């Protein structure tokens, strides 16, 4: 495998759209989430290159820049999943730049689904790559498959300072005020870990509590 040079590995899009996305990320995010978001893009873009995928680097970058902004108070709604809040913020941003609706939808889906297991990898390349970049940076999925020298260069440029503990704290803080929105997601377990007495609904209980009565059993067939 040909390992890109440091200069190649650390390239992010330099379009006006990307620069404005970076400015928003820098203004409203923490240092931890800023570095995380840039690493996610760099990991994802390199994974796309390794897989010979055709993807829009600018759209992938905007998705990476906005993917965790739903954790930030300014972008957080009272009753939507944080992923949807970030996706909605990205949609609003892209609409102000008159980006085509199909491209806006791609970014929206990439952000909205970036924590959803098992689905993004079957979708378009930007959606799949954002998810794989997040999985690599947060829990190390694909760690051994990513070139070690390149991985170390990226982390040196955008360091993981106290990342494991700090990310969990900032992550949970982003939806601690609305734990009900985490039902059916990996984030429900985070709420169960940190909110005393919180228990995410069980699908079996919800089915049993449905207001629909069971129909009578059919009689014997003649």
**Regions with little confidence, pLDDT below 50 for 5+ residues:** none
Number of DSSP strand runs = 0
Largest sheet: none
| Percent of sequence in beta strands | under 5%
Proportion of residues in helical segments: 55-70%
Average pLDDT works out at: 94
Q: How would you explain this protein's 3D organization?
A:
The chain has 11 helices and no strands. The protein is mainly α and 222 residues long. Helix 2 (16-28) runs parallel beside helix 4, helix 3 crosses helix 7 (125-139) and helix 4 crosses helix 7.
Short descriptors:
globular, single chain, 222 residues, mainly alpha, 55% helix
Structural topology:
Layout: H1 6-9, H2 16-28, H3 31-50, H4 57-66, H5 82-95, H6 101-112, H7 125-139, H8 148-157, H9 163-173, H10 187-194, H11 203-208
Task: Write a brief structural summary.
By secondary structure, the protein is mostly helical. 55% of the residues lie in helices and 0% in strands.
């Amino acid at each position: 495998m040909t390992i890109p040079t440091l200069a190649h590995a650390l390239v992010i899009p330099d379009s006006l759209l990307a620069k404005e996305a970076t400015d928003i990320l820098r203004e409203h995010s923490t240092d931890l989430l800023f570095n995380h978001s840039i690493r996610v893009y760099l990991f994802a873009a390199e994974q796309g290159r390794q897989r010979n995928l055709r993807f829009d680097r600018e759209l992938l970058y905007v998705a990476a820049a906005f993917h965790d902004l739903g954790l930030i108070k300014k972008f957080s709604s009272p009753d939507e999943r944080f992923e949807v809040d970030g996706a909605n913020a990205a949609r609003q941003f892209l609409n102000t730049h008159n980006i085509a609706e199909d491209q806006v939808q791609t970014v929206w889906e990439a952000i909205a689904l970036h924590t959803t297991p098992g689905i993004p990898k079957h979708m378009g390349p930007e959606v799949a790559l954002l998810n794989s970049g997040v999985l690599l940076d947060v829990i190390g999925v694909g760690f051994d498959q990513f070139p070690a020298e390149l991985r170390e260069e990226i982390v040196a440029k955008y360091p993981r300072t106290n990342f494991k503990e700090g990310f969990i704290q900032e992550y949970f803080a982003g939806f601690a005020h609305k734990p009900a929105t985490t039902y059916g997601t990996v984030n429900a377990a985070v709420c169960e870990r940190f909110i005393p007495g919180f228990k995410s609904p069980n699908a079996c209980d919800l089915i049993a509590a449905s207001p629909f009565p069971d129909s009578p059993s059919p009689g014997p067939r003649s």
